[in-house]
Amino acid sequence: MIFTSGTKAIKEELEPAYWFIFYHDELLVSVGDKSSSHIPFMNDIKSLRASFSDIQYLGLVDGKDSYIASLSEKLSLKDHVFIGLRKLFGSMEDDWYWLANRACHLIFWKKKNRYCGSCGEAMHVSEDEVAMTCSKCGNIVYPRISPAVIVAITKGDQILLAHAAKFSGQMYSVIAGFVEPGETLEECVKREIMEEVGLYVRNIRYFSNQPWPYPDSLMIAFTAEYESGDIRIDNKEITDANWYSRDNLPDLPSNVSVARKLINAWLSK
Ligand SMILES: [Zn+2]
């Protein structure tokens, strides 16, 4: 699949165009053949068209226009279901899955910026760039992207995994947190580790990154080695943390997350 970001439809007509339709954070997908999910064409979903709001152009997908819109009601349609993006992982081709994540990020952004934060006037989607503008005061609002670091800390053949209060079930994962103004990514790694588990680390190395639109993060992943200190949790964000070896791992995050990719990379060493 080839995607080209855009701000204005190339073709005037709406057919054939892909439509990413959201009800809150759930995406409408076609499940006709049951084996995989697809983004519907307008032709498949035109009975819902009158209920669309927050319509915005997304870009060209394999030469076809694509749009994003939201529904305020969870309308039902034969051979289509609404599904949360985390659950959708694995049942849709990866490049389509990550495009759906991009669409999700943009729909949250548009909903949160209906009105100008400076003068209160209604905002409009720009046709020149991925931005919203205020026609009264000229305020320009770009999609907010919040950088967050995520880090796998190792100590010999062990990895540090923690249970955060916000995690569902008994899942344990690596340490993560949002970057603060004025901070480098490496400083953020050190601060988050100190705040959440009270440890000093060394050899901080970049690993990978991943957009995470819940609602607007960009996860920047690192590895680090334990240097000193004893685990001391804050008991607010983190409720438990321990060193784990390969043969006694707790429940881990899903394969969609960069957290799991960090853990898998450590496992495969
Ligand atoms: Zn304004």
Topology:
Blueprint: E1 3-5, E2 18-23, E3 26-30, H1 42-45, E4 53-61, E5 64-70, E6 80-84, H2 85-88, H3 94-112, E7 123-125, E8 132-134, E9 140-141, E10 146-155, E11 158-164, E12 175-178, H4 185-197, E13 200-212, E14 217-228, E15 238-244, H5 258-267
Parallel strand pairs: 2-5, 10-14
Antiparallel strand pairs: 1-4, 2-3, 3-6, 4-5, 7-8, 8-9, 10-11, 10-12, 11-15, 13-14
The protein binds zinc ion (ZN).
Zinc ion (ZN) is lined by residues 116, 118-119, 121, 134, 136-137, 139.
Question: What are the key terms here?
Answer:
alpha+beta; Nucleoside Triphosphate Pyrophosphohydrolase; six-stranded mixed beta sheet; globular; binds zinc ion
Describe the protein in words.
The chain is an alpha+beta fold. The protein has five helices and 15 strands. The strands form three sheets. Strands 1-4-5-2-3-6 form a six-stranded mixed sheet. A hairpin with a 5-residue loop joins β8 and β9 (140-141). It is globular. The chain starts with a strand and ends with a helix. Zinc ion (ZN) binds next to loops. Zinc ion is lined by residues 116, 118-119, 121, 134, 136-137, 139.
